[in-house]
Amino acid sequence: MFYCNGFRGISLGILLVILLMVIITQPRWLQRLLYPIHHEEIIFSSADKFGVDPYLITAVIRVESKFFPRALSSVGARGLMQIMPETGRWAAREMELADFTPDQLFEPEINILIGAWYLASLQREFADLRMVLAAYNSGGGNVKRWLETQEAMGLIPDMKNFPFAETRHYVSRVLNNYRRYREIYQIKAN
């Protein structure tokens, strides 16, 4: 017999059956456990401020840093949304954030605010979400040059042909996470 909080006679098997029933009948509970939204208030307020889908921001954060605010990439990208210091400085100037320093990119409030602003600026520049994400990962200049080359060759841009394998993989991962977040949190994905 398994004893739990003084209850006698409850077997481990019954507890497992109950747990399995909860998981089966309440799949959103488990899905939300597997796909959490940390820093939800900051994400939603930044998303609202710049007109970006909060679930897109969340998907980017999940792929970029797995919600670790002190994340630091090998090339120097910082924080939740893995923003490069130069991008942070540029965005801070454009947003008129006083006294910005790159170390602030480790602060969730600043990182998400700048990341949301940057995503919004890329959405204004590129109509296709795949291109927005490719630009977020590999830089807008690289995406523009690739699109111009595709157009000059008479080709329809397809991410399968994007020259950077890392970026192709990144775009796919973010889009998959984005769809999952929208499904789990009951928003229909486009």
Question: How would you describe this protein?
Answer:
The protein has 190 residues and is mostly helical. It folds into two domains: 1-34, no CATH class; 39-184, Lysozyme (Orthogonal Bundle). Helices cover 62% and strands 0% of the residues. It has helices spanning 12-25, 27-34, 40-50, 54-65, 85-95, 108-125, 129-138, 140-152, 165-184. It is globular and about 70 Å long. The chain starts with 11 loop residues before the first helix and ends in a 6-residue tail after the last helix.
Topology:
Layout: H1 12-25, H2 27-34, H3 40-50, H4 54-65, H5 85-95, H6 108-125, H7 129-138, H8 140-152, H9 165-184
Helix pairs in contact: 3-6, 4-9, 5-6, 6-7, 7-8, 7-9
